[in-house]
Design brief:
The complex is a heterodimer. Chain A is of the alpha/beta class. Helix content of chain A is 28%, strand content 17%. Chain B is globular and about 90 Å long. Classes of the chains: A alpha/beta, B alpha/beta.
Amino acid sequence: MTTIDLGLPGLAGVPTFEGAQTAKDYKTDQEVRWCPGCGDYAVLAAVQSFLPELGLRRENIVFISGIGCSSRFPYYMNTYGMHSIHGRAPAIATGLATSRGDLSVWVVTGDGDALSIGGNHLIHALRRNVNLKILLFNNRIYGLTKGQYSPTSEEGKVTKSTPMGSLDHPFNPVSLALGAEASFVGRALDSDRKQLTEVLRAAAEHRGSALVEIYQNCPIFNDGAFDVLKDAGERTDRIIPLRHGEPIRFGAEGQHGVVRDPKTGALRVAEVAAVGEQALVVHDVTLDDPSYAFALSRLSGSELDHTPIGVFRSVSRPAYDDLARAQVAAAKDKPADLSSLLRGKDTWTVLD
Amino acid sequence: MSIDVGRGTRHTEVHKMDRVVIRFAGDSGDGMQLTGDRFTSEAAAFGNDLATLPNFPAEIRAPQGTLPGVSSFQLHFADYDILTPGDRPDVLVVMNPAALKSNITDLPPGGTLIVNTDEFTKRNLTRVGYATNPLEDGSLASYQVHSVAMATLTRKALEPSGLSKKDAERAKNMFALGLLSWMYHRPTEGTERYLREKFAKLPAIAEANVLAFRTGWNYGETTESFAVTYEVAPAKLAAGTYRQITGNTALAYGIVAAGQCSKLPVFLGTYPITPASDILHELAKHKNFGVTTFQAEDEIAGIGAALGASFGGALGVTSTSGPGIALKSETIGLAVMTEMPLLVLDIQRGGPSTGLPTKTEQADLLQAMFGRNGEAPVAIVAPRSPADCFDMALEATRIALTYRTPVLLLSDGYIANGSEPWLVPEVENLPDLSVRFATEPNATDGSGAFWPYLRDPETLARPWALPGTPGLEHRIGGLEKAENTGSISYDPDNHDRMVRLRQAKVNGIAVADAEVDDPSGAARVLVLGWGSSFGPIGAACRRVRRLGMDIAHVHLRNLNPFPKNLGALLANYDKVVVPEMNMGQLALLLRAKYLVDAASYTKVAGLPFKAEELQDVFAAFVKGLDS
């Protein structure tokens, strides 16, 4: 069975494992050193239980991370891995993925790592559409350096480095990724294992760069940042589940929906009873024009009032690493005669 | 128009010379680099030994006719083996007043000056500060001046071609090349073939350039103004097949060869920067050798991608210069910590900061040696000439693959762009650089685990286990590792041991002994150099010996670690002199390591040393000991 037979065209070229795998196979003997209650545990467990389902050879999976709490992730995955430099994981992973088409390469990063020090590498990896699955753990705070505000912290955030409140306007990571020409963008919550796994699977199946923003709780420095999305009373009115091909509606009774504003062309939340079912936008991840997905990403800001969760966009575009390997393969039609290369066109001979 | 070239009938006096230095100088839009390159190829095809020095501004097109916009190309060719592009030209060709003004002081009295008079207008003269026309005011009386209206003559010759005046005059550099080719009895077929290939898609331009070239040749042949032509016989070099090569091309070929010799795919991750970009350009042409080139978003991503490719089992390479090497420091540190092979090609240029992008310098040695946080030793090698770049690329690869370490290769702008004849190696004589990857668990505790930091007892290298190898899954990274197992470790004793192990691994790299050039064996002064100063230092030593003095020369190609015999060598001499194009960086290392009272001679002018200047310095040291 190849990954193609398994219905995983996004993983073409990665060898499969015939036997059974379990989450245990993906655990290392290293003691996990995140703080008690950290959202990273939930993500680690989700990844460890989801990867065996893919049926890949474990030795052909590589996790590359930068620096930060989330970047310890590779040490706990019994695959190949590298815990690299702050912000540089997408660059290192690009070299690995480009030179090795038989690997499934994952990048684990955080809001500081990916969006602050590593912003340049992230946008270029997405633009090139390198075959990388990028898991962006967004806890809206710097954890490893003990609690400074991050590029996704809400304005006015009071932290050790901003006692009078932060002044920077935050990034919306989904909007940023879409602006950087990402071919796949999704969002998940650390606490919703089922939905997280769905998005991870969709990312794995995608050929090219896939960015998954994972809202992740930091219990020490930004505890409860996403509680409104987890609270039983509030979450149904705030979370907008995205399902391809279905009208976008939410709320305990499905009473809210997303409609297009005829004036601005943007999307907004409306009451279904007021606008009618026909007015609801039908979610389509395959739209080539990114402005639809971008409009979706703008429904929520820092305040998390209306937060779409799921796959925003998944379009097909040639992956950089596939193209780079194809160029080398095509060039190999020409003989590689080193002697002739070194001699060149103009030589002269000195006789004894 | 029908012109026969190469069948001159006019009688001219032919002077036989053993060596000539020609400098072409003009505006940066005048095509001086191309002209110099072509004359070089003609000299190479004729079998002369040669050395070249291109010198051009960082601006692509500085304002026309200004002093900062002057671009020049100096070529030294001879009937014997030479070491430098020459201190001063014998013949100076200038295309405009700015080129005259900025180059004339280098022409010795009696030298030949060939001037394109068309640009000597009042406006152009005033622009560069000439109050009167130097061609008319007698200020050039000490030179043999040939005034030639090159642009006018070229334009007239090209009138039938229907090209615009501007396009026709652009071919005046080929006129100059034709004239010089006539003066020095150079073969012309190569240039004509080259022009037709270069402009294959623009046949009218190709023929115009060929015609301009022939017109220049015929101008020499038919006008009476040139009474003498010169012959420089082919050089008696070691037997074999030669080609002309620049340092950057040789370095790129060395990387291609290293991939073949190691049987590894090559991955170049890089970002364009002068004067290193040509390595990318060259390697991008050779994908058929399994070479992948990746033009990254920045210097950091370039080296990061190269390191990622190394992790996957490729020969990871990055290339850079100037501030680029500073940006790569962090990733070099990660390569030290993860103990992976990585080649870092640093084509040094004038610094600090942006500095002098197109000029040469040797001021990155201490950065290569120490420029990282923590104790982060790396191997350092330095080619000594353009052709030597090929050999040092292989040497750097040998060290990187054998010892699993980043290697910094320090070339510089002078040898990167300069060219010389290269005795093309036989492929079957190239070294075997093949690698053994780890395939089995290796733990010595019977656990059946894989220990990524269990070292080879001889080289102290750790195993290279590629992703895709079952049973060897492991994690590496920038955190300190426990000896052997490679788990994260904050243990104080372990850290101390690992720091010492990484140092011992680099210290223990096997490198060839330094060779001494001391023909008499009686020298008391040793000149010690590294990198591109090999030519000027060697030439200066020859001159000192011709004056009847003894002097020894050692040129280091391995700078970390130093050759094992270096300490003993230094102790053999009464005086050690270290000339460098920096403020004395090698001298500092030598003084620290060997407690030798080395004398530093430094110049940081963006140009290579002149043999003449070093001759005086060396002679003074020899005489100083004698007195």
